[in-house]
Amino acid sequence: MSSLAKRKPPSLVMLSTVFVLFWLVVAAFPFLWTMWGSFKVEGDFFSRADWMNAITGPVTQRQHGSAFTLAGYEGAWIQQEFWRSVVNTAIVTLFVVIISLTLGTLGGYALARSGFKYTFWLLMAALVFRAMPHVTLVSGYLLPFFQLNIWGFLPTTIIVLVAINQPFTLWMLHSFFLSIPKDLDEAAMVDGCTRFQAFRLAIIPVMWPGVITTGLFSFLLAYNDFTVTSMLLTQENATMIPKINSFLGSTQEEGKVMYAVAAVVSAIVPLFALILFFQRQIVSGLTAGAVKG
Amino acid sequence: MARLQLKNVNKRWGSFVGVDNFDLDIADQEFLVLLGPSGCGKSTTMRMIAGLEDVTEGEIWLGDRMVNNLEPKDRDISMVFQSYGLYPNLSVYENIRFPLRVRKVPKEKHRDMVMKAIEMVELQDFMDRRPAELSGGQRQRVALGRAIVRKPTVFLMDEPLSNLDAKLRVSTRAQIKNLQSKLKTTTVYVTHDQIEAMTLADRVVVMNAGKIQQVGTPTEIYDTPANTFVASFIGSPAMNLVEGKLEKGVFQGDGIHVEGLPAGPSGNVTLGFRAEDAEIVEDQGQIAAPMYSIELLGEASMITWRLGGALVSIKTNKEYRAEIGDIVHARIPASICHLFDTASGERIDDR
């Protein structure tokens, strides 16, 4: 019976397979192309003579004696001190995630459990701030930051990124908390917990998928941010994305654009690793609110 | 072990009155049932005792402590929730151990105490399972086990059986009754099911619209309901209530005529009697009216008339046969009748 239901016309199978393959190539091509090209020199990757040079790499062969070279990575990481940006990004994302999640879980829980009407307006206000373009926030902050002499430091950027990110984490965690029945907190409180212990011992253990999903979104926001970091950080405090941008902006010297390509690949790899590692939690987190247990 | 007193307890949300002047003294080891339709304030009363809801006015005393301003954890109570409130990430064993863990009971005592509770609720075979892998009845037993593990002074149970199917409800009910008599802990039990109330309670509190309607033993509540609300809420079927006029001990209603009632009250009254107290007769009955319906219940048949606006039912033997529309007589001796004032609903005979 099931085989009958599963049987589809061969033309449909063909069509869908071709479509999926086509889509896969379109979606993955830029990444693969960049990754391949990052091991070549500029003369190959940006070759004017023949685009096939980017694949075969004759200039790379001539200059380095092999079709692949780590020259781009060496230049970016060692010569241009890209590792500094990596460290800066690590600091910024780590603190943005920790602060957003701490405030987000506490605030989201409070909003989800509060019986007052103003919680609705607080959430609405959060939505408005979330909808605003990031640059409006930054332009407002710039002058006071200069005058207070705190412009250019990592903590300043962390605060602004948290401010941009917080409305979203609040919303997301709030709806996760709403999906957890109130009985659970009350049972915990009768069993001997304070409100905070009930939150920590009874609610958070059930909330892990939600916390991880929200944390991942906060991480991506901080990791990928360009508007805030490029305007608020000095050159030596720059995170990866503005640093890559500065490589691209200085093409007068040959080979420098390859630093950007190598840096881009370096910035992508951790993202793949992270998503692959957390994929199960992310999927269960994204669907957790949808069905009630 | 404690006596629980509620002194003129009120709960208001703005102008809405949830609980109105609840005043009750619950003796040590008593099994008290709060009974009423949904929204009558019975759960709110229980939540105020637990400390999950603030008291607007009045005092709650547990033993010799006024507990109004104490956190739930400091009141030494335990509670069983309608939806169980189990910790889904913990095993049955850990769920029951949770109160001991948070209350910092010395670790070496945990195993003994938890095992004892698990035995009492008969969950030995399910210790390592998660709540999601249990049936409804088993989950409710875990919740019971968690409530009894640390011997609190008062048990609170908020409709613990209403999520179970009918058969399981009967067996779990018996189990709760048995547990309470073994543990001798003061218990407050909330339900909207009058059979649960009758079978479990030492005393029943019938509530409606935030007010106490009557407090008494199940027998008192059944035999002498204080007003028409209690009369129509207790018993299955509920008490028959017919409106009519009373004069010099003679009640006259539509299709019903009863003599020999108390001579004192007069005017518009509601006459009440129970279906199982009256009987069908050939003729000369106090009721003489066309039959509205006949239903076979199994052990008996139920004959129904329509008198005035009300449906009136009487139980008779299961062999009884009559056609709908036939004139059927019933004997209603004055001794089984209850009299209520029609306007206020209050009882006016002095039983």
UniProtKB/TrEMBL annotation, chain A:
Pfam families: BPD_transp_1. It is found in: Cell membrane. Residues 86-280 form the ABC transmembrane type-1 domain. It is a multi-pass membrane protein. CDD domains: TM_PBP2. GO terms for cellular component: plasma membrane. The chain crosses the membrane at residues 12-33, 90-112, 119-146, 158-180, 201-223, 257-278. It comes from the Bacteria. One of its GO terms (biological process) is transmembrane transport. Keywords: Cell membrane, Membrane, Transmembrane, Transmembrane helix, Transport. InterPro entries: BP-dep_ABC_trans_perm, MetI-like, MetI-like_sf. Belongs to the binding-protein-dependent transport system permease family. This is Carbohydrate ABC transporter permease.
Automatic annotation (TrEMBL), chain B:
The keyword Translocase applies. GO terms for molecular function: ABC-type transporter activity; ATP binding; ATP hydrolysis activity. Residues 4-234 form the ABC transporter domain. GO terms for biological process: carbohydrate transport. PROSITE patterns: ABC_TRANSPORTER_1, ABC_TRANSPORTER_2. One of its GO terms (cellular component) is ATP-binding cassette (ABC) transporter complex, substrate-binding subunit-containing. InterPro entries: AAA+_ATPase (IPR003593), ABC_transporter-like_ATP-bd (IPR003439), ABC_transporter-like_CS (IPR017871), ABC_transpr_MalK-like (IPR015855), ABC_transpr_MalK/UgpC-like (IPR047641), Mo/tungstate-bd_C_term_dom (IPR008995), NA-bd_OB-fold (IPR012340), OB_MalK-like (IPR040582). It comes from the Bacteria. Keywords: ATP-binding, Cell membrane, Membrane, Nucleotide-binding, Translocase, Transport. Belongs to the ABC transporter superfamily. This is sn-glycerol-3-phosphate ABC transporter ATP-binding protein UgpC. It comes from Maritimibacter fusiformis. The gene is ugpC.
